[in-house]
Structure formats: C-alpha cells, structure tokens
C-alpha cells in the first residue's frame, strides 16, 4: 500500500518534467546551443580574412562593437521606442473600439487588422515604400498642403523608417491589447460609474490599469523586433538612418566578420534584456512578463 | 381576461396597489417609480411600474427570472433610461441623470469588485471620486470595514477573499457613500445555503445599523418574506402586488402571487351567491363559504387555501366549516408537521399540513378524507387564463 503510494507520488513528481521535456530539448538544440556557439564566436579572431575564426578570448570584438557602433545602437533603440509609442497610440483606440463596440463584428474587425499580414514582410515594406515614395499619394498631398517643400521627400528620412516599423509590427500591439480589454468585465465599469465616476474616470481607474498586461506584452512584441529590424531601414532609409540590424547584417553577410557580428548581437541582447527588466519593473507586471 | 380581472380587483378590492400614495408615506418617498415602462425594441421588459419606496425601508422586488427586476433596478441606478414615465430620487426627477450623479449605490449580482485594488481602495473608490476630505475618507472606510467585520482585511485583494467576504466588501463599498438608497441585485445568489442564511441576518443587522433604504432584488420568495418590510411581486414585467410579507402571503390578489409565494391549494370555483358577509363558492358539486373580497356573483374564480390552514376529517364537515372531499395520495412525516398529498375528485392536487394534536385515525394512501378549513381561511382570486405557477418550477 505504502509502496504503491510512493510510486504514485514519484510518477506525479515526474509528470511536469516529462511534459517539459520536448520544450527543453527544443530550447537546448535551437537556442542554448547556437547561443553558446555565438558566444564562442564573439570571443574569436580570424588569423586572416579567409581563415575561420579561432577562439582566443578576443575581448577586442566587444570594444569594437561598442565604440564604433554606438550611434547605430542608440538610433535603433530610439526608432524602436518611437515606433512602439506610435503603434500604441494607434492600437489602443483600435483595440478598444473592437473590444467594446465591435458587437458581432468583432472577429471581422480583428480579421481586417490581421489580413494584411498574410502577405510577406518584405512585400509589405516595399508597398510602404511605394505609398510614401516621391510619386506616391502621401507625398503629393503633403506637398500640396505645404507640409513638405516642392523637392522634399518622406523616403530616406527617419520618419519613413519609424513609420515602416510601426506599420509592420502594429498587429503585435493590437492583439494583446485587444485580448486584455476583451477580458475586462464591463460590470466593473458599471460599478465605477455607480460609484460617482465619469466614464473617463472609470477608464483611467479601471479599464486602463486592467489592460496594462496587454500594453506590456504588446510593447515588447513591437519593441524587440523593431529594435533588431534591418529591412525597414534598408528599404525606406538612407545611410543616415542605419540601425544596428543593418550593421549586423553587413558584418555577417558582406564583411564576413563573424566575431564582430556575434559581439554586436550579444551587446544588443544584453541591452534589450536590461530594457525589458527595467520596463517590467516600471509597469509592475513582473508576474506576467 | 386576466387584465380585466386584475383591474377590477385593484379598483374594488379593499387594498389598493399603492398603499403609500394616499398616506404620509408619499411625502417621505426616497424613490418614486411613476408609471415607468421600459422597452427593448418591441419587447416590454417593465410594464407601467408605479410604486414608492419609503425612507429607511427594506423593500424587495420578487419575481421569477426574466420578470424585469434587474431592469427596474438598473433604471433606478441610472444604467437604463425609462422608455416612458418618471423616476424620482428624493423628490427630484432623475430619469435622464447619469449614474454617477445619482445618490444611490448598487451591490451587483456578482459583486463586481475591482480586482486590481485591495479592499481598502475598493471601499474608498466612491469617496475619492467625490469631494470628500482625506481624513473623512479614512474615517468612513474604517467605520464601514468595522460594520461588515472586515477591518483586518483592508490590504487583501478581492481574489484572496471568500465569497461571503467579497459580498461584504461590495456592501461596504456601496454603503460608505451614505447613499439615499442601496440597490442590491440578488446579492446572495452566489452563496451556498448556509452562508446565504447567515448573510440574510447579517444584511438585516447592517440595514438596521446604518438606517439606509434597501431595495433588494430576489427570485427567492423565502428570502423576500424573511427580510423585507414590503415586497413588490413582479411577473412578466408587471408589478402584480405590493404589500408587507404578511399581506402578500395571507391576502394574495392573484393566482400568480398565491402560487409563487409559499404553497397554495388552488381550486377552480364559481361565485354563486352570498350569505351575510360570506360568499358561496361552488367547487364541483360542493358549495363552500368564503370570505368575500369584491368578486362579482357569477364569476369563475379560484379558491385558495394555504396547506397549514387546512385540516383533515374522515367525515363531511359541519355547516360552519368549508371542505372538499379528497383521496390521500401520499403522506410525509416532516418533523413538526405531517404533509398530506391529496387529490380531489376532479384530479386537482391538494396539500394539507397537519400538526401535532390532531385526533386523526391512521390514514393510508387511497383513504377517502375531507379537507376542511375555516371559511375565513379561504380566499377567492380572479381566475387566470394560464395555469398557476409553482415556485419550484419558477426558480431560475
Ligand atoms: N439590454 C437588453 N436588451 C434586450 N433585452 C433585455 C435587455 N436587458 C434585459 N432584457 C430582457 O428583459 C427581460 C427582463 O430582464 P431582467 O430585468 O434582467 O430580469 P430579472 O432580473 O427579473 O431576471 C428579460 O427577458 C431580458 O431578456
Ligand atoms: Mg436579474
């Protein structure tokens, strides 16, 4: 009896590990192992341009990454921050209307947010290039109303890159915010209004705080890929809007300088981790991060 | 048919539907519902509701699910606007005033506590929205948490509280504003029976302690009977009777009320004549005396007798008793009483509660008996076109 009990308990204790198994194996094979290789690479040096790099504790890669590309790093995080804020400003009202006023069209409206993203990322960026291009409608209009001068463009300027980033990652902001708003019991809003709150106070005190997990998730889902993105800067920007993604891409594929590229990647990861940690502390949502 | 009988009954009956209107009660009405109708599209959810709620009263709205109780309460709170008619709070017409400007507070059906705030902040929420000073907020929240016995739970989140405790937070959160009236929408519905009964007493205690008018919505007739000063019984959007629990129980004015509140024997009868202060009603081939209450001779009526007012005899009743013959179907010993399930010759199911001290011989299913009652215990009701409802079928 006792023995069977013991076995039962052992099996119960083993169950979570068994369930975790496949995921752990996947993480190990496709995340930790490449990460380790990358780390080793970031501390290697190539004896010559065409020889493979050798591990030599080459810390110089890191000082090169930090000193030479500081500008691109700060630009990446600045653009990503602005794109995140822009996406938040567009996505929150959108998600709010769909969640609370969508009625039976909720799913249709959500579909309309997602459908453009069935097309390829590259194609969308190129489409965006056409839209804000010198021959496009947007520039035409801005020139007519005099916001842009006769020979000024949108392309190749920071705003084009930030706009592209915003556009490309918008659904990642809309969906989590929608989910968190949708979960809110509207009777809580009734309760707040019953307790002498205007609709605006009810929003500030009840709806917005309860939607913060969605805002948090959405901003990370936009910020992280936006900071590492190189496609938007490549197609929509100029040499003055180069982001860290472009540098890494250039080092890996053009210069074939793997060690520096790897060091750049590590620095990028470290910065992102610090930002995420600080951000989750600020929003007080560590428990869901 | 039913409407006609209903109107006649209220016009000629001894008791008007609005006992408060002609007394001084109307002057001290906290809430006046003045011919209020609410339509959702074609559907009439509340049909010409017309009553007053007095200051300090424990007032219940009782009726089966879907009869318009919540809608009426939401109109008082301001979440819905009447399609026609007027709602007055403290004498002022508030029909078009938003909820946040009305001095009433609601305890919601599922409490609707703010999950991201602790108990203290939940309770202080309403005061912080108004111009109440900080020290006054602290004083009042402390006071109310003491009233609901939750002083030690101020820093807990709602998710860390039991159902009964959440219920009390909801009460404190509403009462802390000292509203003109507290609206409660089936506040005990989510609790299990034991806790529910404890909370019934607790609610009564709190109401006496704070002296605020309670408007209490429930579909549970027992709850309404135990707790209320007055009850408005609703059915299909209409207020069918208003009165004290005793009036509602002893002098129902319709088959619906008779059947919905407590157990009732309902016998199809015909008003045949009068005998002094009594009416003669014919049930099948038997004529019985009943207290008169304004129904015309010749009317098809329903005779109601409560099971505890009925007793059983093995022989025909004397002239001064009313009675019908019946067959014993079943008998159930229930401690203080024995419940007899009977069947009249035309198949109507009947119930009699027989207490101790009756000198009945041993009865068995199949035995022929007479179910008898004092003529004053019977009550004539206008005949409804629908079958009469049974409470056990109507709940939920
Ligand atoms: N917003 C609404 N739109 C349409 N019908 C409604 C609405 N609110 C309530 N009703 C209908 O009105 C009737 C009364 O509802 P309610 O007042 O909630 O009943 P109760 O609280 O007595 O159970 C129900 O039939 C319900 O379906
Ligand atoms: Mg209801």
Output the keywords.
A: MetI-like fold, 2 domains, 75% helix, B: 396 residues, alpha+beta, Rossmann fold, OB fold (Dihydrolipoamide Acetyltransferase, E2P), 6-stranded mixed β-sheet, 5-stranded antiparallel β-sheet, elongated, disordered N terminus, binds adenosine-5'-diphosphate, binds magnesium ion
Distance between the termini of chain B: 27 Å
- Report Rg of chain B: 24 Å
Under the CATH scheme, the architecture of the largest domain in chain A is Orthogonal Bundle
Strand content of chain A: under 5%
Indicate the mean pLDDT of chain B: 86
* Count, helices of chain A: 12
Distinct small molecules bound, one entry per kind: adenosine-5'-diphosphate, magnesium ion
Largest sheet of chain B: 6 strands, mixed
Biggest sheet of chain A, strands in spatial order? 1-2
The CATH architecture of the largest domain in chain B:
3-Layer(aba) Sandwich
User: What is the CATH topology classification name of the largest domain in chain B?
Assistant: Rossmann fold
In short:
Chain A is mainly α and 289 residues long. In chain A, 75% of the residues lie in helices and 1% in strands. Chain A contains 12 helices and 2 strands.
Write the layout of secondary structure elements.
The complex is a heterodimer of chains A (289) and B (396).
Chain A: H1 2-42, E1 44-45, E2 54-55, H2 60-68, H3 70-101, H4 106-114, H5 121-132, H6 137-144, H7 158-182, H8 186-194, H9 199-228, H10 231-236, H11 244-254, H12 258-283
Chain B: H1 2-12, E1 29-40, E2 43-54, E3 58-62, H2 69-77, E4 84-89, E5 92-93, E6 104-107, H3 119-129, H4 134-147, H5 163-175, E7 181-185, H6 193-210, E8 213-218, H7 221-227, E9 230-235, E10 238-243, H8 245-250, H9 255-260, E11 265-275, E12 278-283, E13 286-291, E14 300-305, E15 311-313, E16 322-333, E17 338-343, E18 349-354, E19 368-373, E20 379-382, H10 391-394
The structure holds adenosine-5'-diphosphate (ADP) and magnesium ion.
The site of adenosine-5'-diphosphate has 11 residues of chain B, from strand 2 and helix 2.
């Amino acid at each position: 009896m006792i023995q069977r009990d013991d076995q039962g308990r052992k099996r119960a204790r083993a169950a979570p590990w068994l369930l975790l198994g496949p995921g752990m194996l996947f993480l190990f094979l496709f995340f930790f192992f490449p990460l380790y290789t990358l780390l080793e690479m970031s501390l290697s040096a190539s004896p010559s341009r065409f020889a493979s790099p050798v591990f030599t504790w080459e810390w110089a890669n890191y000082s090169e990454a930090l000193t030479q590309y500081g500008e691109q790093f700060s630009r990446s995080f600045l653009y990503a921050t602005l794109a995140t804020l822009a996406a938040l400003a567009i996505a929150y009202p959108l998600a709010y209307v769909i969640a609370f006023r969508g009625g039976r069209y909720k799913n249709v409206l959500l579909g309309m947010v997602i459908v453009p993203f069935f097309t390829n990322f590259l194609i969308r960026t190129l489409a965006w290039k056409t839209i804000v291009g010198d021959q496009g409608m947007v520039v035409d209009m801005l020139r007519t109303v005099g916001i842009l001068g006769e020979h000024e463009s949108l392309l190749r300027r920071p705003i084009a890159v930030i706009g592209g980033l915003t556009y490309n990652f918008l659904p990642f902001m809309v969906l989590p915010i929608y989910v968190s708003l949708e979960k809110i019991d509207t009777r809580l809003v009734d309760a707040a209004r019953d307790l002498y709150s205007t609709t605006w106070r009810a929003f500030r005190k009840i709806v917005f705080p309860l939607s913060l997990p969605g805002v948090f998730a959405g901003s990370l889902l936009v910020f992280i890929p936006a900071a590492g993105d190189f496609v938007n800067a490549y197609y929509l920007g100029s040499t003055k809007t180069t982001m860290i993604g472009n540098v890494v891409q250039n080092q890996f594929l053009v210069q074939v300088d793997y060690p520096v590229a790897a060091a750049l990647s590590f620095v990028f990861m470290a910065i992102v981790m610090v930002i995420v940690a600080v951000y989750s502390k600020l929003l007080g949502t560590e428990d869901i991060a | 048919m039913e409407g006609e009988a209903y109107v006649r009954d209220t016009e000629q009956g001894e008791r008007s539907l609005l006992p408060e209107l002609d007394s001084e009660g109307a002057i001290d009405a906290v809430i006046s519902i003045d011919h209020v109708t609410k339509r959702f599209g074609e559907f009439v959810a509340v049909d010409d509701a017309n009553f007053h709620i007095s200051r300090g009263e424990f007032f219940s709205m009782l009726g089966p699910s879907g009869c318009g109780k919540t809608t009426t309460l939401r109109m008082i709170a301001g979440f819905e606007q009447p399609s026609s008619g007027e709602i007055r709070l403290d004498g002022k017409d508030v029909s078009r005033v938003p909820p946040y400007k009305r001095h009433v507070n609601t305890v919601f059906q599922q409490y609707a506590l703010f999950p991201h705030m602790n108990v203290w902040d939940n309770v202080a929420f309403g005061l912080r929205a108004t111009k109440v000073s900080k020290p006054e907020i602290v004083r009042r929240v402390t006071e109310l948490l003491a009233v609901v016995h939750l002083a030690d739970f101020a820093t807990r989140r709602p998710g860390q509280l039991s159902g009964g405790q959440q219920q009390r937070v909801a009460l404190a959160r509403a009462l802390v504003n000292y509203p003109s009236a507290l609206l409660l929408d089936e506040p005990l519905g989510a609790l299990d029976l034991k806790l529910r009964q404890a909370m019934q007493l607790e609610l009564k205690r709190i109401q006496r302690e704070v002296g605020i008018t309670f408007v209490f919505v429930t579909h549970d007739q027992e709850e309404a009977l135990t707790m209320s000063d007055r009850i408005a019984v609703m059915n299909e959007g209409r207020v069918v009777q208003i009165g004290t629990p005793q009036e509602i129980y002893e002098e129902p004015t319709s088959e619906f009320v008779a059947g919905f509140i407590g157990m009732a024997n309902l016998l199809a009868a015909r008003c045949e004549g009068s005998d002094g202060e009594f009416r003669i009603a014919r049930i099948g081939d038997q004529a019985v005396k009943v207290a008169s209450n304004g129904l015309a001779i010749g009317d098809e009526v329903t005779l109601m007798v409560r099971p505890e007012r009925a007793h059983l005899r093995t022989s025909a009743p004397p002239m001064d008793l009313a009675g019908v013959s019946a067959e014993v179907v079943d008998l159930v010993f229930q401690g203080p009483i024995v419940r007899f399930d009977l069947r009249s010759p035309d198949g109507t199911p009947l119930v009699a509660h027989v207490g101790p001290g009756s000198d009945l011989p041993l009865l068995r299913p199949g035995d022929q008996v007479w179910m008898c009652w004092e003529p004053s215990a019977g009550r004539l009701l206008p005949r409804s076109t629908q079958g009469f409802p049974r409470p056990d079928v109507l709940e939920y």
